[in-house]
Design brief:
Elements (H helix, E strand, L loop, with lengths): L6 H20 L1 H4 L7 E3 L9 E3 L4 E4 L4 E2 L3 E3 L4 E4 L2 E2 L3 E5 L3 E4 L2 E16 L2 E16 L2 E9 L6 E5 L2 E9 L8 E5 L1
Parallel strand pairs: 1-3, 2-5, 3-6, 4-7, 5-8, 6-9, 7-10, 8-10, 9-10, 10-11, 11-12, 11-13, 12-14, 13-15
Length: 183
């Protein structure tokens, strides 16, 4: 004689699987996936000079990593941070990508193009944006944001929390359009 499991057990199993999938999608671990890394930083940075990420390079900072030097991301270069960037300066060139799933403690971020996505915590004294795409989905603590858009199609998107002391704009060229979104 076979024993049948009660119908409720199947419903509980289905609900458990559904809840697990939902938690996985909305947890920080979902965002913190860095793949196809060509170079990796796993501990404290010991470089005596700034890190330059060239075209085609995918530089990953693991959860225990700390980049404490300036960072220059060139056209076609990508940085994926799951650890900490505690530098004085980040420069993002056109065609470059910075994805933050960890923590950034920085004095200056300079956008000369490219894209920045914040899925973690960012503390910055100054952000200077000439062109490019800025996406904040978590927390940004920024003293001064300066927007000097010199290119059509650039945008500043905030779907998280930004605590900002001052936002300013310098000579935005009226020949270009830009978008600022704040949800």
């Amino acid at each position: 004689m076979k024993t049948r499991l009660p119908q409720n057990l199947f419903q509980i199993k289905y609900q458990l699987i559904t809840c697990t999938i939902i938690l996985a999608l909305f947890s920080n671990n979902y965002y913190s996936q860095c793949t196809s890394c060509t170079s990796t930083l796993s501990g404290a940075s010991i470089m005596p000079y700034d890190k330059i990420v060239e075209a085609g390079e995918i530089f990953c900072i693991n959860s225990g990593g700390d980049l404490n030097r300036g960072l220059h991301i060139k056209n076609g270069g990508t940085v994926c941070n799951n650890g900490t960037i505690s530098a004085d300066f980040i420069e993002i060139f056109e065609g470059a990508t910075l994805i933050n799933n960890g923590t950034i403690d920085i004095e200056n971020i300079m956008f000369r193009g490219g894209a920045f996505t914040n899925n973690g915590i960012m503390n910055a004294e100054r952000i200077w944006m000439e062109k490019g795409d800025f996406n904040n989905y978590k927390i940004g603590n920024i003293d001064v944001i300066t927007i000097q858009i010199m290119d059509t199609g650039s945008y500043f998107n905030n779907e998280g929390i930004i605590n900002c002391e001052r936002t300013q704009s310098h000579s935005i060229d009226s020949n270009y359009s830009y978008n600022i979104y704040n949800s």
